[in-house]
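Below is how a single chain appears once it has passed through the pipeline. First comes the sequence as given, then the structure the pipeline wrote out for it. We keep one example in the README because the format questions we get most often are answered faster by looking than by reading.
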Amino acid sequence: MPTPASTARPLRAAARRRAGAAVERAAAALARRRHARLLHPAGRTFAAEVLVWGTPGRPTGIDLLDRPGRWPATVRLSKGVPTPGSWPDVLGLAVRLHRDPEPPVDLLVSSSGAAPVLRHLPLPRRRFTGTYTSIMSFRAGRRRLYLAALADPESPELGRDLAAVAATVATDQPRLVLAVASAAGPWRLFGEVRLDRRRGAREDAALAFDPIGNAPPGLRVRGLLGWLRDTSYRGSRRARGASAQSGGSTGVTV
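Resulting structure:
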């Protein structure tokens, strides 16, 4: 005879699926209405390189963070709303690591604060040079980890608007430093992102990220925020006819 608990589980799963489908449909409808991405529609895309030298101190247990490596990458810097010109906005940085023949890895971070009390909050900012964090935490075993891209004090300033970012990359190779931290611990630097050259508007439009499905192997996202982000990004991709691996290839974008 079924117990109340065994009966409730499939009911909860069905309710979750219905809620997810509703959120995905709403995200797709909003993206179609604005004829662009639902989130961070205004941006610039660049070819890049990611260099990982490894996590200092206690390893995280995540090979991508702990072991030295070098990968070609695609980077997109963007404005969230977007506000005009250099007006404050929640700025975004998305990094896709190309690991052929393995699936890509997507790291998505937003303008935030470096301090523990601020690293889970999206904060509007004028300048593209600054602190970007994953906002939501990842689970690595029993530990919670945050990822970040921090300003490199020896790198050129990225500027206050997207045009300035493109101009800086055209004349130099600006860098950001990759870091990992626990919920309350200090940031530990494990690598860097070096921007190389701008890619065209067609490539920018084709590019689609999946911060949940393409998370670094060994890191997983739990909770309401991760679920909401997963379903809304999926709806936005569906409205654009894009997949979780669309665009950003080292050759021709799809």
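The domain at 11-240 is CATH 2.40.180.10 (Catalase HpII,  Chain A, domain 1).

See the next section for the split statistics.
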